[in-house]
């Protein structure tokens, strides 16, 4: 069976747990953060650079790759791993989130979604079957079920109606999916409504997936509401399956998610803010473009041993940003991903030593809401 | 003495020669191509990537670094090597070329040049002394004398007048320059006029520099005129000093320059065309954005073993360019620089074996005028 998951240790002081997820292209220690490579590349990085900072699994986007260069082309290239020169695990999302957040002129029916490309306006149709077909062509280690994901606020009736469609789609995904070296995860939806989340989990578990995404969070709601919803959703989920909180990736949210029993995360945040010159450090946020760093010849983060922090000063990185040089955003991207991956390493150590509460306190202090 | 130069071998079939240039930060085998790091970074590359493709010396721009981040800041950072994390030789130009090609509202006098920054319009003054002061602060292995460089076509009277100023400035540079770990090269000017070039060389040699740039070529004139001017200028230059043809860097011009006795070259061309998706290969020019490469799963250049060609297909690189992903131009930049540096390696081998004419024939065939 693909996506064998083993819980290695359950924390006594929280719902956090240590796990190991065996995938076709390798083993992933959980809790884990997955860098996002939307268009078959983690923006500005080579695969070797990702490995050097300890990335074990990355995410790529079905919607984007379907539109450009096209999943059939990726299949011809030997699949996404070969196309992009990454031989470790990959997860592809279902395209659902992007269809609902990026594409235009959506028309949803029980059958699927018709939409216009955000690139050229061309019309396309995604259904559960189509999403599976595309994801099987891409050939990631983990595929995600096609779902409806709406932004906050989300009316009860709307959320309930969309949930029924999503559950029907989950069944159809499971039925259509046939690639044996690829795991298919279901996605829990239901907005911020406890009874809908409960129904979602129960129905998905009845279908039986080797892992479950938690969707529809981090879509605009206050963080407290997200944490609350995790507290009611996660305990309903199977203990022996990985739980993946989709689209979450700030240092504080990662730690809060782990405390509430989440195993996997992904987010564009670290790479996106890096390209604007904002970095997470052991001293909190550093916006390296600021004039105060013009003559700061120290590293971005004095407690980091990533490539960027070993070789470059804040003054140099600031110069690169002011001069609009690509190396600047390369260096901040390396650092931010290294910071998050290192944080998850510390999180795993802290779970083992029952010290995650202390680490959470530190992170909350560095990144106050 | 800095910039010890030794001619190791003089070709029998042409004016080409093999040399070795000892600089403060290392030894450079000539003929050599120097990648350009205008703003203290070779666009999109790390220093380690440059070393991996065999770069032995890079160039950086005095005009740009003076304006941003400022030479005093670079001095405080411990000099350009330390600031940009490059421990091999660097050459800085004098700022002359940029003042005459980029800056606005120039006013030239015997004293120096007043100009407006191309960044913010602020007023500045460069003189020979000021250029030396800035270049000494930057601390490159080789500094260049401050000169007047005008584009083609260049009237005789104008060229003669500018040459007299440039020769006066060369003397003043030599007098002002005092950094003992830094070599100062003079620059031969005189437009496309043989007698002016002759006068320029004679006067500069009388001042006595450890190396000489050939300026004012590759400024818009036809290639044949440039080659002709090299044929009359180079033989006038001292045999025991390195000859540096400034701003030249296409494969065919490099080979033609070496055949005419040039030892050093620099140019933004390989990195600039790379960012537009154009690559030099053993099969000639490849514009990787073209639709014909959409399903070409072979490497950019089947006879290249650079990082890009070992790991990525034309189809993938084309996808990255179409999707406007930074990794695309990183990969083409790596390849183009590797291609030129490898070409110069082949040039040095060919000189040794008296086979440079054959190599030149091959290159002329790949890049017809």
Please compute the radius of gyration of chain A using only Cα atoms.
20 Å
Query: Percentage of helical residues of chain A?
Result: 40-55%
Protein chain pair with the most extensive contact, residues per chain: A-B, 35 and 35 residues
What topology, given as strand order, has the largest sheet of chain A? 4-14-13-12-11-10-6-5
Assembly type: homodimer
> Structural class from helices and strands of chain A?
alpha/beta
Query: pLDDT under 50 segments of chain A (min length 5)?
Result: none
Biggest β-sheet strands, sense, barrel of chain A: 8 strands, parallel
Strand content of chain A: 15-25%
Query: What is the residue-averaged pLDDT of chain A?
Result: 96
Count of individual helical segments of chain A: 15
How would you describe the overall organization of this protein?
The structure is a homodimer of 369-residue chains. With 369 residues, chain A is α/β, with parallel strands linked by helices. Chain A has helices spanning 47-52, 62-67, 71-76, 80-84, 96-101, 128-138, 156-176, 194-207, 223-233, 251-259, 269-275, 307-311, 314-322, 326-352, 356-366; strands at residues 4-10, 17-23, 26-30, 32-35, 58-60, 90-92, 104-108, 113-116, 123-126, 142-144, 183-188, 212-214, 243-245, 264-267, 278-281, 284-287. In chain A, strands 4-14-13-12-11-10-6-5 form an 8-stranded parallel sheet. A 3-stranded antiparallel sheet of chain A has the order 1-2-3. In chain A, helix 10 (251-259) links the parallel strand 13 (243-245) and strand 14 (264-267). In chain A, helix 6 crosses helix 7 and helix 10 packs parallel to helix 14. The N and C termini of chain A lie far apart (42 Å). Chain A binds chain B through residues 39-41, 43-46, 64, 68-69, 73, 76-78, 83-85, 294-295, 297, 311-313, 315-316, 318-320, 322-323, 325-327, 329-330, and chain B through 39-41, 43-46, 64, 68-69, 73, 76-78, 83-85, 294-295, 297, 311-313, 315-316, 318-320, 322-323, 325-327, 329-330.
